[in-house]
Design a protein that fits this description.
alpha/beta; 26 strands; disordered C terminus
Length: about 950
Amino acid sequence: MNTNAFALRHIGPRADDQNKMLTTIGVDSLDQLIYETVPNDIRLKKDLDLDQPMTEHEYLLHIHELSKKNKAYTTYIGLGYHPTILPAVIQRNILENPGWYTAYTPYQAEIAQGRLEALLNFQTMVIDLTGMEIANASLLDESTAAAEAMSLLFAVRERDQKKAGINKFFVSENILPQTLSLLKTRSNPIGIELVVGKEEEFNFSEEFFGAILQYPGKDGQITDIKSFISKANSNRIKVAVAADILSLVKLEAPGKFGADVVLGTTQRFGIPMGYGGPHAAYFATKEAYKRDLPGRIIGVTKDANGNRALRMALQTREQHIKRDRATSNICTAQVLLAVMASMYAVYHGPKGLKHIANKVHNKTVTLANALEKLGYKQVNSSYFDTLQIKTKAKKIKKVATEKKVNFYYPDKKTVTISINETTSIRDINYLISVFAKAADKKTITISAIEAFNNIEETIQRQSDFLTNAIFNSHHSETELMRYIKLLERKDLSLNHSMISLGSCTMKLNAASEMLPLSIFKWANIHPFVPAKQAKGYLTVIKKLEDQLTEITGFAATSLQPNSGAQGEFAGLMVIKAYHESRKDHHRNICLIPSSAHGTNPASAVMAGMKVVVTKSTAEGNIDVDDLREKAELHKDNLACLMVTYPSTHGVYESAIKEITQIIHDNGGQVYMDGANMNAQVGLTNPGNIGADVCHLNLHKTFAIPHGGGGPGVGPICVAKQLVPFLPGNPVIKTGGKKAITAISAAPFGSALACLISYGYIKMLGAEGLTESTKIAILNANYIKQRLQGSFDTLYSGERGRAAHEMIVDCRPFKANGIEVTDIAKRLMDYGFHAPTVSFPVAGTLMIEPTESESKAEIDRFCDALISIKTEIDSVSKEDDNNVLKNAPHTLDMITADEWVFPYSRETAAFPLDYVRENKFWPSVRRVDDAYGDRNLVCSCTPIEAYMEA
């Protein structure tokens, strides 16, 4: 046994276990199972052409060597990205801790109270600093947040504005360039007309519904947003402000001036630049707009005992319910990074943040004064951290490059310098020497930082922030370490037990894949540095793109989309650009099967397409006759089909090639949702089945951790005809020859996280990747067989096999008074996170074990479900005081002096022997979602202030 082989460590079942599982299923070999599962006509005829797999040790040496190709110059580029200091206590206890990074989106609130509290802290931090009434739990990056703000303001136009077709949106020319590019991408499909101009020249015409300002501007100048917002408000124009979050420590909150939305990035709060991401954006608005607020909101409610509990609020907004009526795509969060940013605020507190912000500002002022003494003209009259120098940029750039310093050069006569948290007095003196040399003058040496405020008095911060106790209690490392651990213990993650979520693929996130994230030369590269300084990154990016292109059977890949939701949108926008290049502007019909992911219709609407739903058969397959009928009906306007393969019902549809051909015959392109690529890699691929574009969820198939609901990466892979339209970036050249405008802020999206997938593929190689797919199918079919007799599988393939996931039907248990939610909550008592609940079919569980789980763990999971089935059989509809309806059971319940339930404490807490070995205690009883939505509270205000009388 080659114990150095990564595949041996990644794949759960041992060889002997695999044989036992195959016997249980009733097949002679793994190859026979695959033959009975995957239609033969879509199987690949040759192995994947990938490099030989590396051992973990070889890979870590390799990635260290590659990191040396990145040149970590001292960087003052700004434009929304800054060097930061990540407190080691946060790095070690959150970023490098599987208890945090392997957690899933907190849909099961009772076993996610720790993450939910950290996100509530994040929302409170954002509300306080922005002066707004409500905030969400993070978005993907500042630019996508700005696009969401534009969409929200468009949606909440006054009735007469909608009736009059008011569609103009003013964009300050001082907006970040990547944000402007993304606003262009997102505005056109939904009928918004952008008007870019100077704030001081804007006429506040009634033709405009909204505006967006940068605060401070991209060049560092702080404009009079107070007057602008006042005039806009009086003219019924709603205003979004993209604000630097650290500057808000010194600048008055835009909410105090009447802003309607405040947004930005929290990257400055200790998050490494990572060549562009991942970072958590923030988004805050007025409570009146809460139903249009994008993304997720964490709200306060109470549990079955009336105790304070947290959960994701307003869940009826989500895409699998609203579908094509959704206001945005909910899969747009960066939870792990939001948690880290919130802990940065907890650790430093308001006094610490003031110290950091003052230090940054004072060093900026000190530098400005020194440069003026050298004869340079600094033109910003009011600034926080960024200076705008009018000079011969070429001369400065030559000296700066020699001295390994990066500035931003917006034109030939301008240099901007953005000071940051890491900048020292020594750095200031070094910067002065750069400009002195360029001017052929003797340098000036600074011995002390000048304490001078260069922010206009009318916009200086007067309001308090972070007054809640949580931000004033954990300032020593000991205290913060214990607080982080306190929250971690409330969350069930992969380091505790299997998370069998269908369509979410919660596989192993190997330590060897994660370690490089902390390497300095990977973590601290600005996304807009010259290509020569990012050769390590560009090597990894090119190789990963090639790997994914090979795996999908396509022609090219773009890593820019920084979530699966962005990947969906990007794929559709590329299809749209392709049609328009052929003068087919009218093609706007998107066919979507009824079984599709709920995010699909939302993405199609965002791309300006009209959704036409096609039927499914009783077996869960696409109704080919209905699809053909609708494709032919709309052939003149057909843009595309969005299809998931294997289907969301967990079946390899044998008619998939016929389906893709129907679309092509009627002038459309085929978009394949890559959520289920874990059942394709090495066995088949999207190109082989006739798709034209797919997005991949690197946080599913390719091992990036879910991080509690983000980060994710959603690259798109495309066929030859779509290559020219891959997305570009306004600062760094990337994408195709006819590139669409930006999809995400950074040119290569969340590049730091892409290291994980690069390592996953490098260490598994072609054989390991294919074996992983086969074992994922084995594990799923083993569960299906073990549950037979207790649970019915809703859909199967033509030979009775499941793909890598299956749907089990819980609807018959309604006869006993038991709902699928009761089973989900009872699983917590057995130490498991529930599978996907009521999606894509209400009243069911969708189970996906992944290849990483061992036979022993799968058996424990099956034993739990079978035991729960026995419990269901013993209860009746008339008796709702039972072990399922009361689940989950907390430690407080079990240890209470009084026990009022008709079953034993042992039955409640330790239903099977294995539970005793590693008991996980839910920290609250079942949460009351309805109460929380009726009494929406999204910050750290004590729950007592909101309890009903």
